[in-house]
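Entry 14. Ran structure prediction on the chain below.
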Amino acid sequence: MSAWTCTLSSPSPLQHSFTQNPATSETPSSAQWIDTLRSQVRLNCFKEAIFTYIRMNVEGIRPDNFVFPAVLKAATGLQDLNLGKQIHGSVVKFGYDTSSVTVSNSLIHLFGRCGGSIHDVYKVFDRITERDQVSWNSLINALCKFDKWELALEAFRLMGLDGFEASSFTLVSMALACSNLPRTDGLRIGKQVHGYSLRIDDRRTYTNNALMSMYAKLGRVDDSRAVFELFADRDIVSWNTIISSFSQNDRFREALDNFGVMIREEIKPDRVTISSVVPACSHLALLDVGKQIHCYVLKNDDLIGNSFVDSSLVDMYCNCQQVENGRRVFDSALKRSIGIWNAMLAGYTQNGFFKEALMLFTEMMEFSGLSPNPTTVASVLPACVHCEAFSLKEVIHGMVAVFDGGLKFGRQCCVQGVA
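Output, structure tokens:
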């Protein structure tokens, strides 16, 4: 971990708290080091926490089952897998991989969050001699991070056989796993998860939010709405989930109606709300409503410059044949993600501005530093057909061939007379 010693900034006030006092020649005790480290982690001062951990080792302070969970959380917060593996080596060296369930749980969480392997996760989990509920939840959560939905469900079954009841954290992971299964299986198992939550009387907001999202992703928007209407402690995530559920399932009027109720209940919209409700204005051709939402965005600093919000506004204006307004939003965007480029390209093409689409595509290729994706190609390909002088047709043809499913898309365009 020596690399960290040269990348850290100057010590924070917390670090100064354990520096030796020349007047008294007192050296901080082990407890003071640990308190400093844990305080830094609680304040999300992760680099400072790693600095403290290194200093502890230099001073000969042996890390224990209080130090390792804190420093592993710091490594997780920094998304530094290599650092986490070095700390794991120390965990094994001092025997805490088998003697402390808290340390092991922290390791599982690190590997799940920082891109470790399933092998890493199972290796730690299998060495835990006395697992607790957190151990199982950490395993299930890690498997979900790896998109191993069936394995997560199997771990849930084994958790029950091991005598542990699911918590809200378990149910949230299970709802996520079910939402990523084939629709029939996901709905069947998802209803069982929902029934389980009712049996243990779990009324927590984030559990209900997860169930709402699960039903929506499985195409059961009315079931999502039923969950929404049955609990009172709704938060911004609850409202965003129900609005996006309607919007993503082409029930745009209901999305707008719920947005109106949300405003009347004085729930402040965030970027997810705006990104979900603006497409409803677009599909219903409600330009005036869309402009009102745009005005709201311009009055809120935390929404200005958000790439998702900007992309949805560009799309809305272009779908309402207000291409110039869409371009103004594009030009004023503080950060241009691939999404906003695609929205503007599609807006030009759909409105017959083929030359402008190709000029924008050329600008994107030369100056944005972004790589086109299949959506980009799908947006610009029709413009190529209408501009015979465009010199990059072979480049775009190559992109179509490279992207998964691109050739199929190209043949469909030919059949439909687009290419």
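The two ends are 56 Å apart (CA to CA). Will compare against last week's run tomorrow.
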